[in-house]
Design a protein that fits this description.
There is one protein chain. It is built from 2 helices and no strands. It has about 90 residues and is an all-alpha fold. It has one domain. Helix 1 runs antiparallel to helix 2. The longest helix is centred in the N-terminal third of the chain and has 52 residues. The protein starts with a helix and ends with a helix.
């Protein structure tokens, strides 16, 4: 009876390790998706900056605040995504 208890304990411990591995895999997938989102946001931010830089001076002066605000929000989002990925990497 004691031997059966030890075998059950070992099997349960192996199952726990398997579950931990599965959760780590899910977190790795989450980090990959966040990294993809970071690249998308960074690309959109650069495109927005290029669009602003390409405007004629008169229009640029009128629209610069709108563009800058959007770029700032995208930069903030990129920073938050990088922070989230960093926290997840610390868990993995």
């Amino acid at each position: 009876m004691i031997l059966a208890g030890h075998v059950l304990t070992v099997l349960c411990m192996k199952e726990m390790v398997f579950l931990n591995s599965a959760r780590r895999g899910k977190l790795r997938t989450a980090v990959s998706n966040i990294e993809l989102a970071i690249n998308i946001v960074r690309s959109a931010s650069l495109e927005e900056q290029f669009a602003l830089d390409g405007l004629p001076d008169g229009i640029r002066d009128a629209k610069e605040n709108d563009f800058e605000e959007r770029i700032d929000h995208m930069d903030d989002a990129e920073s938050l995504l990088e922070e989230a990925a960093s926290h997840l990497r610390a868990v993995i």
